[in-house]
Amino acid sequence: MKRKNLVALLLVLAGLAMAMLRVFPAADLIYPSSSSTGQSPVVQTPEATVVLGERIKADGCQVENSLPDNQCTPGAVFPDATAAQICTPGYSKSVRNVSSSVKNEAYAEYDVTTRSPGEYEVDHLVSLELGGSNDIANLWPEAADPRPGFHEKDQVENYLHDRVCSGKISLAQAQQEIATNWLAVYSQLSR
User: Fold this and answer.
1) Which residues, 6 or more positions from 182, have their beta carbon under 8 angstroms from its beta carbon?
2) CA–CA distance from 108 to each of 30, 63, 69, 114, 131 (Å)?
3) What is the pLDDT of residues 79-115, one digit of tens each?
4) Ramachandran sector of residue 131 (left: φ over 0; alpha: ψ -120 to 50; beta: rest)
């Protein structure tokens, strides 16, 4: 319950940060490779990030019931991402920027020292398609097994993205739902 309230408060603060970014822009507008089609511009903001909680540790992180350690991975978003932008084809690709060294840092924080191909992926807690950022506070090594794992979380990401893009929920609500407990959304899908 505390984390849910904290996430809600931080999303309000993210809204304030978005308003400030409109007054003091920190992002450059870019167009996807298909910009000649007249698609809306996409905002790329690798430096502007709002962390959705306090990141109080960077080692000894533990996954519990398929959820990341919220003291290590509270989630983070690009505060100026809008529903119109994230719903533009090519948005996620245009903002994806996680280096191998940052991925290795995420593995090290969760003490994942060995892995086989397909066993883990460094995942964004708040997915890029929901305005999540590439900040280490939003990254964690998610296992494929035990299930639900990263394949099932991908289903949640797609479901929430579709709901935002169809106007059924706000982007802020989708970010809160996935950052707070993506498994709760998954259990609704599984019924």
Assistant:
1) 67, 125, 153, 156
2) 33, 13, 13, 10, 25
3) 999 999 999 999 999 999 999 999 999 999 999 999 9
4) left
pLDDT digits (tens, 9 = 90+) for 31-86: 333 333 344 344 444 457 889 989 999 999 999 999 999 999 999 999 999 999 99
Instruction: Residue 113: give the domain boundaries.
Output: 2-189
Look up the pTM and report it.
0.75
Q: Return all residues near 99 (Cβ < 8 A) that are at least 6 apart.
A: none
Report whether 135 contacts 58 (CB < 8 A). Answer: no
pLDDT at 37: 37
**Helix, strand, coil tally for the chain in percent (to 5):** 45, 10, 45
pLDDT of 167: 97
Can you tell me the distance from the alpha carbon of 140 to that of 127, in angstroms, rounded to the nearest whole number? 12
Q: How many domains does the chain have?
A: 1
Contact status, residue 76 vs residue 126, Cβ threshold 8 Å? yes
List the one residue out of 190, 114, 100 whose CA is nearest residue 151.
Answer: 190
Could you give the CA distance from residue 170 to residue 97 in angstroms, rounded to a whole number? Answer: 25
Provide the sign of the torsion angle of the four alpha carbons 13, 123, 70, 103, taken in this order.
negative
